Amino acid sequence: MVNPDRWRAGAAMVLLLVAAAARTASSAGSLSPGTPGGVLNLLQREELATGFSIHETATIATVWPASPCFSNLVTFDPMNPVESADSIVGELAERWSWQDNYRNLVFFLRRDVRWHDGQPFSSKDVKYTFDMVREAPDAVAKLRTSPRKEWYENVDAITIPDPSTVVFKLKRPQPALLLMLASGQSPVYPAHVPPAEFRTRCIGTGPFKLKEWRRGQYVDYVKNPDYFVKGRPYLDGLRYYIIADRGTQKAALQTGRVDVSFPGDTSKPLGEELKAAVPQLVMTVVGTGTSPHLLLNATKPPFNDPRIRLAMSHAMDRRAFVQAVTQGGAVVGAALAPAPYGIWGLSGPALSALPGYGKAEDEQAKARKLLAETGHGPSNPLKVEVLTRALFAYVDFASFVVDMLRRIGVDASMKQVDTPLWYSALTRKEFQIGANVAGYGLDDPDPVFYENYACASVRNYTGYCNEEIMRLIDQQSQELDPRRRHALVAEIEKRLELDGARPTMGWRLDYFIQRPYVHNLVPHNGIYNWGRLTNVWIDRR
């Protein structure tokens, strides 16, 4: 039972934050005056596996190049690198209001918005989109897969009283819903375009219109002349160069073929090399909201045994990972990002007491002891295959995992697969260990927990399910007292690590690179929510 006084106090506090945040996109942050014109060249690290279908993907390789096409109901202030409730600004919604003790979230929409094909935008499009994403029984369209269905499990219904009003009716209070709707993974789709078409083309309300996607080469956008924010965007166009080879990516950044790097992909050594070679480059160190971790398939032997999962976690020397794999370009942390790159993650003594964070020799001894309890040792070594994605960041991590496992007597090998096969194998749970690098839509416990640890989640690739932890996840989600919510979240993080649910190595940092003539492009502590590029302008003079 929630204490009514604390409920009202918490609700009042959050309402103040929401009221402070309810600004239009045109007034977001402190923008430097822009000069219209020019084309920005951006690095795209791989082909767009799912085209522009953000709602069917879990990868930044789609969200980054597709974001300029779309708009959200609300978004995070593009000029603020810290994403929180008080950095939310309006986009398709001019204003919003929590009602009925956080059980109704009402959006009042702009009336001057048209889709890129000229059709008017209305509340019908919002209901269509999120009924489809949450797989509502009466949804009029269906996605091939909906990775963030669990974000909206608490939505009971979406109603549209009129063309400019949308109401999200909730089963229980959930303040984090507003943050999830601000994520770059939550664009609004047009109700008149079948969702399958976004795998090859894009019709949005965003600042840029798709001109051409030449597979394996580039994605071109042109300025949307009918964009609803007057005087935006500044740029005439965008070109995303698709460059998969690491050396070619470096050369493109160094020579100026591209003006900005790919979010989350510039390591500390690479950033420092580029700055040494071209001192005028601007390098910004930010969190990425991405964490390398082990996916241990708990649906099949041997990882249905929690002792073996825990042994794998003990074997992973987190501090060695930070130094050896990222050359210092990461911070240790568990299921949520620690300060200063996040506000929820464990740190200090609470983190040091978890498996894999102690002295390497002691942790490896604990791992061997657990393996011995399950009948594995020098005369009967555990044999495992470490599956990973054929991208250098993943392969580097997987190589580290194989080495750590061999140190405790596990006969480990590595297998690489391309991106489409990678996600297919994870979804069908056709792996033993996955060396994964997951990106999270935003720094809040709700999307991270529900998407990755909820028993029935599409993205719960490991099949891990703990009903007691699920009850705690639901409890923290509706807790309005910040201190109590932090305490609940800390307990959940601890239990997940002790269960070997998804052993986390740490949180990567990005040494984001851009040319000095690029203005108003502010990287955030997370890779998904700043790709709209509405206010970016360039001056190559």
Structure notes:
This protein is of the alpha+beta class and 541 residues long. It folds into 2 domains: 4-27 and 46-202, Alpha-Beta Complex (Dipeptide-binding Protein, domain 1), CATH 3.90.76.10; 290-508, Roll (Dipeptide-binding Protein, domain 3). The chain is built from 15 helices and 19 strands. It has helices at residues 4-21, 60-66, 123-133, 177-182, 246-255, 268-277, 306-315, 318-324, 349-352, 360-373, 392-407, 419-427, 445-452, 467-477, 482-498, and strands at 39-44, 74-76, 88-90, 93-99, 104-109, 155-162, 165-170, 208-214, 218-223, 237-242, 282-287, 290-296, 330-331, 383-389, 411-417, 433-439, 507-514, 518-519, 537-538. The strands form 6 sheets. The protein has a 4-stranded mixed sheet, with helices on both faces. A 4-stranded antiparallel sheet has the order 4-5-7-6. The protein has a 4-stranded mixed sheet with strand order 12-16-14-15. Helix 7 runs antiparallel to helix 10 and helix 14 runs antiparallel to helix 15. The longest helix is centred in the N-terminal third of the chain and has 18 residues, at 4-21. The protein is globular, with a radius of gyration of 23 Å. The relative contact order is 0.17. Residues 1-29 have low confidence and may be disordered.
